[in-house]
Amino acid sequence: xxxxxxxxxxxxxxxxxxxxxxxxxxxxxxxxxxxxxxxxxxxxxxxxxxxxxxxxxxxxxxxxxxxxxxxxxxxxxxxxxxxxxxxxxxxxxxxxxxxxxxxxxxxxxxxxxxxxxxxxxxxxxx
Length: 126
Fold this sequence. Notes:
- The chain is built from 9 helices and no strands.
- The protein has 126 residues and is mainly alpha-helical.
- The protein starts with a helix and ends in an 8-residue tail after the last helix.
């Protein structure tokens, strides 16, 4: 069966990709690493020696490079889930707001201004 018939037509939206079974399988190791950052000892190990921590999780050279560069769009395209990236946010030193801005190619300030304008006067607090 054609994936388009199941998920609908492809839409080109910057920073958005379908979480297909292929991506899920490819990203399993990366997602396991990212979600492990929920545990204090994993965050400490990563802060102490990121290279050793990534190697201990068996990340490939490509996966390690994406983590080093904090290339969230590339990680999502590779197979990382937004949930896993959210769990790793504090360890990687980035907030959801900052990831949203990066995904849109904006600064955090530009992203906040755009979101406030789009919210049409509704309260939007940080």
